[in-house]
Design brief:
Largest sheet: 6 strands, mixed
Distance between the termini: 36 Å
Number of strands: 10
Pfam family, one: AIRS_C
Function: Catalyzes the ATP-dependent phosphorylation of thiamine-monophosphate (TMP) to form thiamine-pyrophosphate (TPP), the active form of vitamin B1.
Pathway: Cofactor biosynthesis; thiamine diphosphate biosynthesis; thiamine diphosphate from thiamine phosphate: step 1/1
CATH architecture of the largest domain: Alpha-Beta Complex
Radius of gyration: 20 Å
Number of helices: 9
Bound molecules: magnesium ion
CATH class of the largest domain: Alpha Beta
GO molecular function: thiamine-phosphate kinase activity
Number of domains: 2
Structural class: alpha+beta
EC number: 2.7.4.16
Length: 314
């Protein structure tokens, strides 16, 4: 199959305004007056970010949703994306696989109201590599950042943590996922698109590499220390039942794609009210103080010690 036919069959139907049906050398994008562009990229590699026998549809959704989560962390709404696909030869990535993959993209484009703008397709001697560059917009000067936390702010997290990290273990046959909720969280994260936290939170990021490590990034960028309380971390019932055997995996594992924010005490009621309006659970799990680094205290107020800090790519 030729590259151009392949693109026309699978990706042309996904192209929206500005993509000019993928018939030109580039795309054109307009932004509403008073808004600025927010850009982010995420790449997924077979065997590392997804398993070859994960459904093509959920691989497509995870690819878009980890990018959407970065936009959510910036307080931005999605506008479009560029897709780069490197396909290995002689594998099960055939016509029907890409039909399902494109169906997953189409479903999430509709759900999150954005569309394909362009991209590139190549062969690859190595595993399947999928890359997305996502483009979003935000009112001028209103992008959320990691560097605004102050002493006295609370540390808050959306949703619950650890489901995806345990979902991967379930996929690898290491634990039982009785209701399937862990595997689903691993395959199809829930990006917190749609919240408007500018003017409420002092700093924000999404949790992709694990709570402790990502809190470390926030603390470092803001020049503060963060204290977390183990018994405040929100866990689903399916995760809680594995807490004694998989504590590190739950607290340090990645792929949560929840928002981590800090919020001054006088804005906490607004934060809770806003999240309630959007049916997004949010929990206060710690606080910001002077100093540096992250520590987590157990119910007795003793610091927990971990054998590692979180997911490292290199
Ligand atoms: Mg991120």
């Amino acid at each position: 199959m030729g590259e151009f036919d392949f693109i026309a069959r699978h990706f042309r139907p996904l192209a929206g305004a500005g993509a000019m049906e993928l018939r030109n050398d580039g795309a054109v994008m307009n932004l509403p007056a008073g808004e600025e562009l927010v850009l982010s990229s995420d790449t997924m590699v077979e065997g590392l970010h997804f398993l070859p026998d994960d459904p093509a549809k959920t691989i497509a959704q995870k690819l878009l949703r980890c990018n959407l989560s970065d936009l959510a962390a910036m307080g931005s709404r999605p506008r479009g994306y560029m897709l780069n696909v490197s396909v290995p030869p002689n594998r099960h990535y055939d016509e029907s696989w890409f039909t399902d993959f494109a169906a997953g993209l189409a479903e999430d484009q509709k759900k999150f109201e954005f569309h394909l703008l362009g991209g590139d397709t190549t062969g690859s001697p190595s595993p399947l590599v999928l890359g997305v560059t996502i483009l979003g917009s935000v009112r001028q000067g209103e992008a959320l950042r990691r560097d605004g936390s102050h002493e006295g702010d609370g540390v808050w997290v959306t949703g619950s943590l650890g489901r995806a990290a345990l979902g991967l273990q379930a996929r690898l046959g290491q634990l039982k996922d009785e209701d399937g909720s862990l595997t689903l969280a691993y395959r199809v994260p829930t990006p917190r698109i749609g919240l408007s936290l500018y003017g409420i939170v002092s700093a924000a990021m999404d949790i992709s590499d694990g709570l402790i490590q990502d809190c470390g990034h926030l603390a470092e960028e803001s020049g503060v220390a963060i204290t977390l309380y183990e018994d405040k971390v929100p866990l689903s019932p399916a995760v809680r039942q594995h807490l004694s055997h998989h504590k590190e995996r739950i607290l340090l594992g990645g792929d949560d794609y929840e928002l981590l924010v800090t919020c001054p005490p006088e804005k906490e009621a607004a934060l809770q009210a806003h999240c309630a309006t959007h049916a997004v659970p949010i929990t206060r799990i710690g606080e910001v103080s002077k100093g540096a680094g992250v520590r987590m205290l157990n119910h007795a107020g003793k610091p927990l010690h971990f054998s590692r800090i979180g997911w490292q790519h290199f």
